[in-house]
Design goal:
Blueprint: H1 2-5, H2 20-26, H3 32-50, E1 55-61, H4 65-77, E2 82-89, E3 92-98, H5 99-111, E4 116-119, H6 132-145, E5 154-155, E6 162-163, H7 166-175, H8 183-190, E7 197-200, H9 205-211, E8 218-221, H10 224-236
Length: 237
């Protein structure tokens, strides 16, 4: 509906974690039905990889990237399994790993100056090596349905750089299961090239993150009302 109403050509498609499949679908490299099926497959593979382990995720607020990375590295050097995995905005980083190790890390983060360090209600440890067993099965399913051409480049969560081929997708999308999401870095990399950001889907999480990352307009389309409002606003740009 948006494409029919606004003949705009996106410069890039960009998403956050699971949304990467939606981004690839948005540039016609996946059929929508195949993207939905892959979401289910991905979730099951992640759950299977974690079901025998007590894992989780924790959000740290108020510390810079380097401090969080060093504290995680120090913890790993001492035998813990914790990794910085979501770079959402300045001072907001999500950490994944074994739940006991995350609990032990909480007071260390606070002592280092974190305004808040809080366990999230998660039963998986996303974007870290604990999901390694999910990579190849996910790649095998993706390989069956990924296609070309891409109608626009996709910004990879893994590299914060654009890609536009099935071969790259078959490397980067499975890698995203075990590597950090560089969302903040992605916005920083493309911000000078874009006029605005248009978020599709329920909620406005990325709009909230982008308020901290860019001064460019950000629109959210989740229903017919927001579709119409976004179309009118874009006509004024």
């Amino acid at each position: 509906l948006f494409r029919e109403a606004m003949p705009l050509t996106p410069i890039y498609a960009l998403a956050h974690t699971l949304g990467d499949l939606g981004a690839v679908s948005a540039v016609d490299a996946l059929e929508a039905s195949d993207a939905v099926a892959l979401v289910h497959t991905r979730g099951k593979l992640m759950s299977d990889a974690c079901k025998a382990q007590d894992v989780g995720m924790l959000v740290s607020l108020g510390l810079d990237d380097e401090t969080v990375e060093k504290l995680c590295q120090d913890a790993r050097d001492a035998g813990s399994q914790v990794w910085a995995v979501n770079y959402n905005s300045d001072g907001q980083i999500v950490i994944a790993g074994m739940k006991d190790d995350l609990v032990a890390l909480e007071p260390i983060l606070k002592e280092a100056g974190a305004r808040r360090a809080m366990l999230l209600n998660m039963s998986v440890a996303s974007h870290c090596p604990l999901l390694q067993s999910a990579q190849e099965p996910f790649k095998a399913e993706l390989e069956k349905v990924i296609k070309e051409p891409f109608t626009a480049p996709v910004i990879s969560n893994v590299t914060a750089k654009p890609y536009n081929s099935a071969a790259e997708a078959l490397t980067l999308l499975p890698e995203q299961l075990v590597k950090p999401v560089l969302y903040k870095q992605s916005i920083q990399a493309i911000d000078n090239e874009v006029d605005c950001y248009i978020e599709f889907g329920h909620g406005n999480v990325l709009k909230g993150l982008n308020k901290k990352l860019t001064k460019k307009p950000h629109f959210n389309i989740s229903n017919m009302d927001t579709l119409e409002k976004t179309i009118e606003a874009l006509k004024e740009l």
